[in-house]
Amino acid sequence: MTAVASAGEGRRFEWGWVVIGLCVAVTCYLALMPLGFLVWQSFFTPQTAGKAASFTFGNYLEAYGSSETWRLFRNSILYAIGTSCFSFSVGTALAWMNERTNTPFKSLFYGLSIIPLIIPGILFTVAWILLASPKIGILNLVLKDLLGLDHHVFDIYSMWGMIWVDGLHYSPMAFLLMSAAFRAMDPALEESAMMSGANVFQVAWRVTLRLSWPAIFATILILFVRAIESFEVPALLGLPVGIQVFTSSIYQAVHRYPSQVGLASAYAVTLLLITTVGVYFQSRLSSRGSKYATMTGKGFRPRQIDLGGWRWFTAGIFTVYFLFIVVLPFLVLLWSSFQRFYSVPSMKALHNLTLDPYRFIVTYPNLVRAVWNSLILAFGTATIIMLMTSVICWIVVKTKLRGRWLLDNVASLPLVFPGLVLGLAIMIFYLNVDIGVYGTMWIMFIAYVTRFMPYGLRYNTTSMLQIHRELEESAAMSGASWGTTFVRIILPLLKPGLVAGWIYIMIVSIRELSSSILLYSPGTEVVSIVIWELWENGQYVELSALGVMLILALLALVMAAQWIGRKFGIRE
Amino acid sequence: MLRVEGLYTEYPNERGEIVKAAQDITFSVPEGRLFTLLGPSGCGKTTTLRSIAGLERPRVGEIAVKDRVVYSSAKGVFVAPNRRGFGMVFQSYAIWPHMSVYQNAAFPLQVGERRLSRQEARDKVMRVLAATQLDHLAEREATKLSGGQQQRLALARALVMEPQLLLLDEPLSNLDAKLREKMRFELKRLQRELRITTVYVTHDQSEALALSHEIAVMKDGRILQVGSPRDIYERPRNEFVADFVGSTNFLDGSVLGPDGDEGRYRVRTEIGDVSVLGTEPLRADDKVLLSVRPEDVALAEAKPAGANVWEGRVDQKVFLGECVDFQVKLGERVLLSRRHPSLRTPIGHAIFVQLDPEKCIALRAA
């Protein structure tokens, strides 16, 4: 170990130790503190001015005593299973078509598939409300007209509606994960089955799917955990019609008066248990994945199945999918953003196009501040996380320290925190431990850093594993200290991972809603909160205007990032 | 037995440019023979093999086994790979990690047209596993096999359905050097015993020379020369084949005229006039390239009798154990000679060089 060797001489003070120590301490603090307090809080009664908090099982009794909770539990599980299965099926089918068939224009679709991941969940949900709500939904009105019905066709305010919207929004994630799995497979494995006499169906069933099984299971688990944490869709679609899941119930418990933080914590602990089980299985799965890591040959172009005339059919599926997931939602927001009051598209409404919503948004008193807050938070979060996790990752990957696996797990721990639960835990902690961050931007900064730390770690780990240790050792042999080696050798070599992770964290930070919603206070709103407020106030057209601008800005950010990435020779 | 005629394949690469992977490939393989496609990477040998397998669809050409046409652009025939009934071993072996050794080998019998009884299938699988010395590992997980065992399993799987044709795509390239040599013998023994018609793809010339009945040397999508291993090595027909198969000395020269016997010529080169063997009729003043294998450059400390003798100087020596490589300077020109280690002439000393006219091959200069 470079650091140990040079510090052992004791001649000059090694700053490396300070950096390493600080990073480890901050990581542990961030990851462990909220969890501890959340559990602690769930055993206490609410603290009021007149009465101190006291120990109780009441929260759990209340949470689990009522049949309401079982309905909640059922709803949550149903919703998460439905959503994950739906997005998995859609994503896998598209991935198979994209990777294994000769569907035309498929590389274009692959490029477009990341756009939905850029659109914030709240905007996607609002767009689908405008498309498919029973009263004002455009699709409903069009179908009513066409078919001469007197009732609506779709009801977005239902369990199926929730599953549809959230499943659709996260299907690109399934698509990307399964595409990667299909791509990683040695094509010779399928070709040799074909040479053995198996037909397309036998190859797909007995080889492709069996071999992808770990990837399939991991993908479903990721989607499940993400769906059960989902806040925007249940809050916007479920709450108005009384379909509650854990996340929306936590939100309601906090926002009730007097707020029932204990009850919320009890719900949160349950939710945390579910996500922990999911994440645990997923990590076990990925560590066992080596059994299926086969030696690959010289990456010959995989044979593509010639679909003949059917390839236009599959291209049609891609097009319809793209309509549902990008074009329609964006167009409906665009339409409504040019209206004075929200109205369904018609010739009459076409004459009333106006830029008023944009004028309103641009002069909205909180907006400039919110944009500024969002940018500062996203920039700071991304930068701090990538630098901090690069050190953590170095310890985990490059050293032989005992207990380094523990550090890896601790830094990954926030993965199990749904955004809302994390917000709740941090809120409780800093309400009780008054170090002056509550009600400031710092508390949101802490929440963001905690929440997105695992992503930074993943991005860094991937690149760190590719750095041969001799590169580092030769720097040490040349006389460089640990700090110099880290800054001059490790960080530059990590650059691809650093930049990719930095961009990813920027985007998810700007989209972040579920933690912020419990932590913001007047003056520290972020953009997603402004959208939320506009929705609560029923200012749909203004919300649309802001949404359109936000989507375009995020798109520009991603494109700029890709351009920079290409310029510096970073391949995705 | 196997007949490939006028094969032409192209495909777009990642940048959308058209790559001509195989052009006018024509050859045939008699029953029971091992035919090798030899060439550097990107020469089109794997594309040709995959076209025979049916994993690739050529643009033009015809492929037939016995009298069954499996591909013909003229007749619009394309038999799917799973209906061709050929056995294939992939470079990566493509052993399915989710199955045991037995299941891997039995797979072709389970998915094929012809259904066998359970006992029949079991017998067949065990027989082929025995032939590849894997029978004692039948129940083991396929991923627990060593590289050599995986390679044998891939072979067993390709042989279990008793294919008419066996296709091998660089089957030894993923093994370490020692094992590769051992497997080379194994493979040869198995092929000769079973007398199974085989097409073998490799970039390793010694593998090709060791295993094949016939070799086709390929470059840039075309076949440059077809012949027996000895033919290819001793009578290369152009510079590329001479250079790619084995190592050689090249000398530029121009023809002075015929030299006695049929096929003999005298050629003027920078080291002097040389008596050579022409692979095709040559005329005076033709520009030629002489190719002489290092083992055919004889060295002696006393001046030998006969033609093609020059005096040179030992410039550099490399001791390789079984032989010594001498670099001998003739004027400004350096020739490489491979000799038995018993020749110990020190560096700087004079030495006589003699070239056997039978082994000096004159190639028409490009």
Keywords for this structure?
heterodimer, A: 572 residues, mainly alpha, MetI-like fold, 2 domains, 26 helices, 74% helix, B: 366 residues, alpha+beta, Rossmann fold, OB fold (Dihydrolipoamide Acetyltransferase, E2P), six-stranded mixed β-sheet, five-stranded antiparallel β-sheet, 9 helices, globular
Overview of this protein structure:
- The complex is a heterodimer of chains A (572) and B (366).
- Chain A is built from 26 helices and no strands.
- Chain A has two domains: 1-41 and 355-572, MetI-like (MetI-like fold, Orthogonal Bundle); 72-294 and 307-352, MetI-like (MetI-like fold), CATH 1.10.3720.
- Chain A is globular and about 80 Å long.
- With 572 residues, chain A is an all-alpha fold.
- In chain A, helix 9 crosses helix 11.
- Helix content of chain A is 74%, strand content 0%.
- Chain B is α+β, with helices and mostly antiparallel strands.
- In chain B, the strands form four sheets. In chain B, strands 7-8-9-3-10-11 form a six-stranded mixed sheet, sandwiched between helices. In chain B, strands 2-1-4-5-6 form a five-stranded antiparallel sheet, with helices on one face. A five-stranded mixed barrel of chain B has the order 12-13-14-21-15.
- Chain B has two domains: 2-242, Rossmann fold; 247-364, Beta Barrel (OB fold (Dihydrolipoamide Acetyltransferase, E2P)).
- The longest helix of chain B is centred in the middle third of the chain and has 18 residues, at 177-194.
- The relative contact order of chain B is 0.11.
- Chain B is globular.
